[in-house]
Design goal:
With about 150 residues, this protein is mostly helical. About 80% of the residues lie in helices and about 0% in strands. The protein has one domain. Helix 4 packs across helix 5. The longest helix has about 30 residues. The two termini are about 15 Å apart.
Amino acid sequence: MIRSILRGGVAGAAGTTALNAVTCADMAWRGRPSSEVPARVVDRLTEEAGHPVPGTGGTRDNRLSGLGALSGIAVGCGIGVAVSLLHRAGVRVPVWPGGVVTGALAMAATDLPIARLKVSSPADWSARDWASDVVPHLAYGLVTYGVVRAAERP
């Protein structure tokens, strides 16, 4: 079981790297800024928990930005662990459908809190906004699931 957890963490880290690479390539291609959404989610979560992020101005903004990025890494590794444990339990599908489902799980794990915390309303997103969300998560899912499958083969 420990090996499956470690494999999943490594797979999730690889998938997160792929997601970040696709996102950064999109930013470079379109000349768009990085998203402030992860920082805003962390801000809302810490406020709701009664432990707001300390600091003011740029210092606080930088902390929120760093915590937003770290939360994305944690979600990516956590989804990788969950998928690896499911794979170990016998849930095995080909890479394409497994990658799509894995990407959808990661997307749900990020988009549902965004909507619940009213940081953004996915219902109001444009097609371009959705593409900026779906494509990186698809890359995440394919890489994560592919690594899980490759690592668990005898």
